Amino acid sequence: MILYNYLVYFFLFAGVALSIITHKLTVKAALLGGIVGLLVFKGGGYTGIIMLALFFILGSGATSIGLKKKQALGAADENKGRRTAGQVLANGGVAAVLGAIAWCKPGLTPILQLMMAGSIAAATADTLSSELGTLLGRRFYNIITFKKDQPGLDGVISVEGTLTGAAGAAIIAGVYSIGHGWNSELLWIILAGIIGNLADSILGATVERKHLIGNNLVNFLNTLTGALVCLLLF
């Protein structure tokens, strides 16, 4: 078991280095990502770190696909898919805090690990729906008015993008269930991902469009919503 732990530490270090070399993350983002990964592992175990790794792999892949088309629509990241420290904290901060608490308070581990899965599912659903929905969607609607709107704008969704996000949440839920057993928590995590993603779009169509809050805070609230959904359903 100790050997496996050292292997995780090695892969975390390798992941930080590879993220910097391949320009997937800025240096600060990569270092912060390593800390997030460590806390998630300490509180969530092997299942937690696998869920986080899957989010990063799926998110990075989705961001890289069709980058030129996204740039033409104004839907691409300013750093051409290179994640910043703020984005790492926005997507993984809630999971890291939950992992830290679980590490210090083992008696709360079951609920905290479930909430962690909900937050990661929400982050995955949001990333895949926004990054791939722009490419796969045929009709785009404002989530508040349900009127047709321009793809790439805050709060604009498509059926294809929403379903892609739900699939991402299901992947995270599946990993959690492999580690913790197959029960109703599988559906809870999927639901947490979907609700978190919809909350992200609602915030995007309202307060973010009015420039009252930024995208990083919207993403953070998305992951917090996913965690809270699992807390309420527990």
What does this molecule look like?
Helix content is 76%, strand content 2%. By secondary structure, the protein is mainly α. It has one domain (2-233). A two-stranded antiparallel ribbon has the order 1-2. The longest helix is centred in the first third of the chain and has 38 residues, at 27-64.
Task: Please give the structural blueprint.
Elements: H1 2-21, H2 27-64, H3 67-73, H4 85-104, H5 109-136, E1 141-142, E2 156-157, H6 159-180, H7 185-208, H8 215-233
Antiparallel strand pairs: 1-2
In short:
The protein has 234 residues and is mainly α. The protein has one domain (2-233). It has helices at residues 2-21, 27-64, 67-73, 85-104, 109-136, 159-180, 185-208, 215-233; strands spanning 141-142, 156-157.
